[in-house]
């Protein structure tokens, strides 16, 4: 096997992404010691049962102590408190990274606590499923997917490169971006689609009972695809929307304008407008197939 | 092989559904003669090349003459004209059915032309892909999916049963429903999801070019699922929205209210409201998995 990536990795938060990362480290960097940290003892019991870590702890400071890589993989609302608690435990030269789906908020919440000599590399492996928890993870989750790293002006390029090499070893394509741009792109590709899916599934949940059971039976005609997305982790997604508020509200405003225009076209029987849009959207699908993301 | 379903089936319109039906008939009812009708000579040339029919014609009346089953499988906007043209060619005792995604409009457009002695069984095999045209069809398209039949007060039960047996032989589960109820259920499960998907992909198409290319690269994070739906046939979908206007506008209004409430919760940082909804929607996904529609 190839060289050991890190000596000791602390995974603070060990759900779908954290546990997939643990499995990928086990597979591709067997010499690396893994410390898993979670708030709930039941989660840590699962981690021990699945043998995902060499040590487990409920205290993020204990996890971070002595680690040359610390990965925060909790919902975003826990970051500031974790930053405060691990600050004095981080060893000089350690790299702190994360896997959160929003990046400006992560910089805002963690940077104030960073001691000198610690390298901060915010990251976002753009991968996931609608399942959550340590049992839902798998090492192949990262295969062929993008990982976005956010180098800050003060981040040492070697630290960014080292984190990038880790994700590349797990099969990811790594690129860098600034936090503001990341949050705008993901608002369109991920946050708005999830918000819409949650809404439409919620709308269906509120239907009269007779209609609701049939919606479930006939879900394969389009609705089903939305229910998969709308089954994603509730706390994680609550935090994403609260922490990427501006970019989400901005793209949602555009979406609303476009939907209102379509609604009006339907009401007034303007078939040409509908057909024009539906023809344009077909082209986007082709672009995605060409970009090998389909 | 089992008994022949019909002696002579006329397929008026031979795109994804019509050509899948032709293939399923070839596979499961080899003694049945198939006549394919399309407006464009190029489509019929493809049908001949793929050997999907025994005869081809551009004239729906020629196709319908002598058929004991006539299936209309064109976009909805062509129905009234087809009804007018085939009326005098339909033989007594023949069954006329269709595969359209809206049913009240189909009854409205076809019933005025029906001669006495012809059995009218509006139908909707709820199956499809984002691809279209005779080359996109395949016999297995109907496997395990629902087919909804709409018996009218004057329809002979034997005619409904006979059409039902055909779809069942192709692997479908057949149920009956009235046209009004069908249109409401499909507005929720299919028409609204498609409208939303078309809108969100359209919103992304209008982004600045730099952002647009990244939206394509990072589409796997949620957006991609919408682009598949939004690649569906533009004319077919234009006609669905124009012909199921009331039910679509009604459910769209509910969706809009729900989306506005979520937008407000994000703006004011009301995390509890978001988390409550996201938890409820997860349960719907579980219902779909239990109904074996996932």
Q: Can you write the helix and strand succession of chain A as a string?
A: EHEHEHEHEHEEEHEHHHHHH
Helix content of chain A: 40-55%
- Total helix count of chain A? 12
Alpha carbon gyration radius of chain A: 21 Å
Architecture of the largest domain in chain A in CATH? Answer: 3-Layer(aba) Sandwich
Which structural class do you get from the secondary structure elements of chain A?
alpha/beta
Note the beta-strand portion of chain A: 5-15%
Strand order across the largest sheet of chain A: 3-2-1-4-5-6
The N- to C-terminal Cα distance of chain A equals 31 Å
CATH topology of the largest domain in chain A: Rossmann fold
Give the count of structural domains of chain A: 2
User: Assembly type of the shown chains?
Assistant: homodimer
Largest interface: A-B, 91 and 90 residues
In round numbers, the mean pLDDT of chain A is 94
Uncertain runs of chain A are: none
Largest sheet of chain A: 6 strands, parallel
CATH superfamily of the largest domain in chain A: NAD(P)-binding Rossmann-like Domain
Shape descriptor of chain A reads globular
According to CATH, what is the class of the largest domain in chain A?
Alpha Beta
């Amino acid at each position: 096997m190839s060289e050991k990536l890190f000596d000791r990795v602390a995974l603070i938060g060990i759900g779908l992404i954290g546990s997939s990362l643990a499995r990928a480290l086990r597979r591709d960097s067997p010499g690396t010691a893994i410390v898993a940290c979670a708030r709930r003892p039941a989660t840590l019991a699962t981690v021990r049962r699945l043998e995902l870590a060499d040590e487990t702890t409920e205290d993020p400071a204990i996890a971070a102590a002595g680690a040359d890589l610390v990965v925060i993989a909790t919902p975003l609302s826990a970051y500031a408190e974790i930053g405060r608690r691990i600050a004095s435990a981080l060893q000089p030269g350690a790299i702190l990274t994360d896997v959160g789906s929003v990046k400006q908020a992560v910089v805002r919440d963690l940077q104030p606590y960073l001691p000198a000599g610690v390298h901060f590399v915010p990251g976002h492996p753009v991968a996931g499923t609608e399942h959550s928890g340590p049992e839902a993870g798998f090492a192949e989750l990262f295969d062929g997917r993008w990982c976005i790293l956010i180098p800050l002006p003060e981040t040492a390029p070697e630290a960014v490169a080292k984190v990038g090499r880790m994700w590349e070893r797990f099969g990811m394509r790594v690129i860098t971006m600034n936090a503001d741009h990341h949050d705008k792109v993901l608002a369109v590709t991920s946050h708005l689609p999830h918000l819409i899916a949650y809404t439409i599934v919620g709308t269906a949940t509120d239907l009269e009972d007779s209609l609701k059971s049939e919606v479930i039976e006939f879900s394969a005609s389009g609705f089903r695809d939305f229910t998969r997305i709308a089954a994603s982790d509730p706390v994680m997604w609550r935090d994403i929307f609260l922490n990427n508020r501006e970019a989400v509200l901005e793209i949602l405003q555009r979406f609303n304008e476009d939907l209102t225009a379509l609604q009006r076209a339907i009401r007034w029987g303007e078939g040409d407008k509908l057909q024009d849009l539906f023809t344009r959207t077909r082209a986007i699908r082709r672009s995605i197939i060409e970009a090998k993301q389909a």
